[in-house]
């Protein structure tokens, strides 16, 4: 049960790894924010007309694909680090 | 061959292939060779049961009606998967370490293994999912009838299709979902079949999409233009619905029993999540990529009034592409069947574990201790449950008439399942969440969902029009679609808002005001801090590596030679070359038995489970290990006590033996001494009496002198014999005590006077008469005899230049203690232990008496109820006489 005392400061590599994990954790928040953007668009009955569906389609699927690419990027980076045996047993805990 | 007959034949062949795949995967998994079955790819594909027939057909219909809103159903899960680090990782870790079998089991385990909660969650799930199952049946039926419409020569009967469909799916689920009872509830066969179906449905939808975009529309640009020109050509999405459906989909993705089954229960390796985090969103993106084009083109090309839900099927048919239609049909069929099978399996696990088994055990009483017996019953309960759930779905389909009312049931089911979310999230992240809080939250959420969403959504007039418009009993603020007078919200947003917010509020408030039981607190800590308690992700590393791990562990416990021979024997039995056997269940079981002989059953199970199952140790395991350890500790402490006792006894024996040897030596020495003592006076008595007899003319003076010598020697002999006699009388206990009243001072006076008489240089005796005024009730003569002996001994043996004796009397706790301490060198340490033995004398040279004095003293004191002891730490010779005063007290 006893958690190994974790160092207060990390060397550069460990620091990078933790920030990478932070970024991975922020990803869904970024995604939710970007996917909420269409709610700000003018409605179809607004003066000047609404946003064409093709634009909406491209935006939503573009954001979607971007999220997937970022998640895949983080996943592969993390796996390479695990492959080099850098992952701490507790993972990047609440640093 | 007509199209419909071809479809039926292809369906049957497809199901047969699925059977074969599932069967082969089960076989491979049982032999531990199914490496690729446990890859992240299969895991990701198995997650695709999220995309049901509702997705396959319904998404296009949804898009045709509401534009891009359909995508929220897939955006929710995408966000959850992308954010796997926040929750899913913890969920999967807990599922593995606690051996969770279902979402109901998870909630129940977290809140102190409460079966009431498990039953509640199970009922909620069954009520939400049953209509969802009938939705799948409907989608298959509709696709059949769509095909039948294009086949002029068919005699199609809808009722027959639904019935046989239901029965077939039930049989499939029973065959592969309940073949065996695995502790981990994993079903490799089913998961593999689902993965195959996932590929089929994706390929089918992509094929139709490619056909629509490149063949019908002529390219991407044209397709986009066509979308903009269609009735859904402008962005018009209700913000509330957009957000709340995304949220509902995210919640349902985690809480749906079938998703929980494939995501948590069937998970082989936590690290698969890392891959699925991007791969599954990619799958969802691909599945939804062509939905909008298909909808737009369908709306454009198909005659008005065609059901948009069937565009995926009818569009290729109308363009005279029967093979594409067949593929599309297979895709829809796959989506519906995989969902139904897994949902039925997951629900049956919950129903049998939390409802049927407790009831059965209750009726069975305590007689259910035979494990084989219970396994059989559990399997039977699962099979019956699957049958029951499928029958419910079928009945619901028949009751609802399979109409349009079913179309909205998907979201309603999501809203119902999402009621578990507060309990789940609270349970994972908040240690303060309690069982009662969960119960309150679930009840409130469930009731509100039933009232605002489920019952109105079912249609068929379950809630009268009157109540819908004016509320029950005229209470307008209880109107199902306008609670508390808030109108104007879309029904699903309204229902989600109220049920989930009040659910969460009840959960938090009741949790804050109640106190959890110890079990709840224990489980709470286990769940919330699961990363502190469980080992890191330990993946499947190949069977040989597993055998090696087992070997290493066994060597530590059994010893290298035994372990090696055990493994070699098992390898020989499995007809494998080399020393390492496959970790088959049989071998692992045997190994566990062997190990349990050394470390206890629970510890062995935990250790083997750690290596083979990859699952962490549960609380019960730990408790059992602790019990065993406690027993072993107790056992070893008992052994320690026994061994200490033995060594103590041995030491005492050794001491006794030493004493005996010494006494024996003294006895020998004394015997020669006694014969010498007797011989010396006897010789002089004989010699002087011969002189008196034979010598003529002895003077009177001389005669008197010789007679005196003879007399003295005779006295000496008499004294020796008296002492021996006295001792034997005392020892035999035949002595009669003459108890009288007197004072210690008098006795001491007498003793000092008698002992000092006849010495040229009497030693100086120091006394404190003030404290000697102690009344006694004892045999005063005998006591005086002891004192005389001690004083005379000091007189005789004290080797100081000015011999002195201190006599100190004191009363301590009803005992009189009199110390006799001289200023000589005392008794040598090596003989202190035997100073009171008979025939003991410090040295033969100072032979004053026969060495019986102190032995007599001890006997006397013991007769008087007291004792005499040598005080080793007083410098000179020091004796302590102690005597109880109880008799004196009694006399007064």
Could you describe the 3D structure shown?
With 95 residues, chain A is mainly alpha-helical. Chain A has a domain at 28-36 and 53-82. In chain A, 59% of the residues lie in helices and 0% in strands. Chain A has two helices and no strands. Chain A has helices spanning 12-36, 53-83. In chain A, α1 runs antiparallel to α2. The relative contact order of chain A is 0.14. Chain B is mainly alpha-helical and 892 residues long. Chain B has a five-stranded mixed beta sheet. In chain B, β6 and β7 (878-884) form a beta hairpin. The radius of gyration of chain B is 51 Å and the shape is elongated. Chain B starts with a helix and ends with a helix. Residues 367-372, 536-544 and 888-892 of chain B have low confidence and may be disordered. Chains A and B meet through α1 and α2 of A and α4, α10, α11, α13 and α24 of B.
Give a quick summary of the entry.
The complex is a heterodimer of chains A (95) and B (892). Chain A has a domain at 28-36 and 53-82.
Structural class of chain B: mainly alpha
Approximate shape of chain B: elongated
Helix coverage percent of chain B: 55-70%
Number of domains of chain B: 4
Number of strands of chain B: 7
CATH architecture of the largest domain in chain B: Up-down Bundle
Beta-strand content of chain B: under 5%
CATH topology of the largest domain in chain B: Sodium/glucose cotransporter
- Helix fraction bin of chain A: 55-70%
N- to C-terminal distance of chain B? 130 Å
Could you state the order of secondary-structure elements of chain A as H and E?
HH
Rg over C-alpha atoms of chain A, rounded to the nearest angstrom: 20 Å
Overall outline of chain A: elongated
Spans where pLDDT lies below 50 across 5 or more residues of chain B: 367-372, 536-544, 888-892
